[in-house]
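User: Please predict the structure of the protein below. I'd like the answer in structure-token form so I can feed it into my own downstream comparison script.

Assistant: Understood. Taking the following sequence of 95 residues as input:
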Amino acid sequence: MNDSTGKHSQYEFEIEGHLDDRWQEWFEEFTLTARQTAVPLLTGPIRDQAALHGILKKINNLGLTLISVNPVNRSRAFLARRVRIGIRGYEIFIH
């Protein structure tokens, strides 16, 4: 949550592979956007760190490969954050 406004932060999740409309029901409040790059974009609100970890766990449990996670409307420094889902959980890389 954005402490200064009390609003949820928006995040974009890039996922490897083709995800059709049937995947939308797994990600309730999120918007699934197909792109020509074959890297679908999942966009939605994240209210706090627990919610962020929850969506990361869901992506992992569904066997999807996460390419990147980026907060929307943030500075360039925040856009450098990358998250990779692995077989044994996830690792966070901050550049």
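That's the full token string. The CA atoms of residues 12 and 43 lie 4 Å apart.
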